[in-house]
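=== RUN LOG ===
request id: a7f3
mode: sequence -> structure
chains: 1
length: 403
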Amino acid sequence: MLLNAYGSTHPGQVRDHNEDAMLLDKRNGAYVVADGMGGANAGEVASRMVVEEVARQARTLSVNLREQSEDPVRGRRWALHYLPQVIEQANRMIYDEARANRGRRGMGTTVVMLMPVGDEAYICHVGDSRVYLLRDGELFQVTEDHSLVTRMLRDGQITPEEAHNHPRKNLITRCVGIQPEVEVDSLYLDLQPGDRFVLCSDGLSDMLSHDQIEQLALRYSGQQLVDAAVQAANDAGGLDNITVVVVEVEQQKQDHPARMGKLQRVEFLQDIFLFAKLSDQECVRVNRILYEQVHTARSQIIRKGGSGDEFYIVVDGQVGIYDGQVHLTNIGPGGHFGEFSLLEDQPRSADVWAESDTRLLIIRRSDYLHLVAAEPTIGIKVYQAFLKHLADRVRDLSGRVSR
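=== RESULT ===
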């Protein structure tokens, strides 16, 4: 897909220097916003170092991403494993520099990195700089801040309104360069024509509400959006450095069926009982382990008695469930089957056939177990949903027996 990128950084109305940094590497498809912190202008050193490290490796990353993308499953796993290592390497460099130079002790930086390749986009982030996505007229915050306030909000200790004005909203829980190692969140999204990404430091997101940023992204595009966002943040007080990068996917004529729009994967997940209690950002992280599979009409998807470790969600088309020659039921878009395969390997209890050309989303048990090990909060919510589902089935079975 064709991309256009624009960006600007501004010191704001209060600070006398700018500790933000950005990268617009259009040739290699690498886009970064970093917000530095530390005394004696050391913050600008930290943000510059992480940007320079991404720029140094961008060409190699771009080539490898395109080579690996020939196999979608392998390519995604490669990207989600190796892209964070660039940030981890920058973290070590900043940490070592701070230890070697007394005037730079305690310096660090946030970072968000966007790398589109083909019809996919990969995001790595640490701290409270953000990535937003405008799709189909709605703005979606893709990343989740690594901050004390976000943790309090997620735990239900404060409301969204209290979070926006909380006195400790700038206290981050994760930062590049402060410790010898850092945990980097990595995400994956499908790209669609017309997508508009906004990468920004908290100099924008602290000054403007979600709705205000959405209105700007709907009204403007390209460099006009960048300039309008920076100006709006300054007009609101400009209390911090402001950096905005906009990456847009050009509208193109589609020669193939449209992919899932309006972040439909997230909406699909939230309609499935296992994932109904997950936040939007948690569903985006589950999206990392979702894979698409297409079956033509009358092709077999599952064979009764065979082993399987995959949970299926029907995107479009229809599948039929059979016990030998006996037709049990059909499952259409939004339906699902095989959920217990996420818990253990057991023989399939029925044959499943595609009744028409069908597209499925698939989660493999090994990927799921790895996700919940890394994301305990997601694991707890999913297992609670499993227990409720089992209880409902037992209650239903008991009612039938009693009748």
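=== NOTES ===
The chain has a mean pLDDT of 89.
Residues 302 and 352 are 5 Å apart (CA to CA).
=== END ===
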